[in-house]
Amino acid sequence: MILEQAYSLWLQFLALFPNSIRWLVSLVVFIFFVKIIIDLVKKSFFWLLLLILFVPASIPLIKEIFTSLFRFLQLILPSLF
User: How far apart are CA 79 and CA 51, in angstroms?
Assistant: First the structure.
């Protein structure tokens, strides 16, 4: 449900731009999200590693977070083409 709401907001945001540059806006936002995710993992890699080592129950939670994030990015990516 949250994923559908985020996708709906994304489509509303893209509607603000002309069709000719929507792919560029999608590309810029995608690159921005990837950079944020990479920076977040770099900053908290040690804590993420400790979390995985000491709390085995957190692995499904982390998988779900990354799966949801991947699904959201998959919804954004078709807007590039």
Answer: 35
